[in-house]
Amino acid sequence: MANGSRRDEDADAGTVVVPKTRTVTKRPNLYRVLLLNDDYTPMEFVIHVVERFFQKNREEATRIMLHVHHHGVGECGVYTYEVAETKVTQVMDFARKHQHPLQCVMEKK
Ligand code: TYC
């Protein structure tokens, strides 16, 4: 075929067609893990719990403990269901082992 006279059907010769795939992402349900205040658990124990199970530094753990102490409830972190459930169990087991009445619960966001 002469130059400058390519037929239409050859126009896309060598072009690879990749179909678009639709990515359907769904956001996971998230849960707050909360500590509840009580009159008996020592402040130092609560700070230790927040550092140990919620990976907070001492300053942040102290801030959270004082928030709970003054407001009755406070958030330690936000996690997917299974992680939140594990945190609650770990905190409750640790508090029971040390004979403190500290309560930890989860709440859907
Ligand atoms: N209120 C407790 C006290 O005065 C301290 C405390 C803080 C207990 C936070 C529980 O989740 C809690 N010793």
TrEMBL record:
Q: Which family does it belong to?
A: Belongs to the ClpS family.
> Which UniProt key words apply to this protein?
Hydrolase, Protease
- Determine if Ribonucleoprotein is one of this entry's keywords: no
Question: Which species is the source of this protein?
Answer: Polymorphum gilvum (strain LMG 25793 / CGMCC 1.9160 / SL003B-26A1)
Annotated Adaptor protein ClpS core domain residues: 26-104
Q: Which SUPFAM superfamilies match?
A: ClpS-like (SSF54736)
State the superkingdom.
Bacteria
Subunit architecture: Binds to the N-terminal domain of the chaperone ClpA.
Name of the protein this chain belongs to: ATP-dependent Clp protease adapter protein ClpS
Instruction: Give GO terms for biological process.
Output: protein catabolic process; proteolysis
Function per UniProt: Involved in the modulation of the specificity of the ClpAP-mediated ATP-dependent protein degradation.
List GO molecular-function terms, semicolon-separated.
peptidase activity
Name a Pfam family for this protein. ClpS
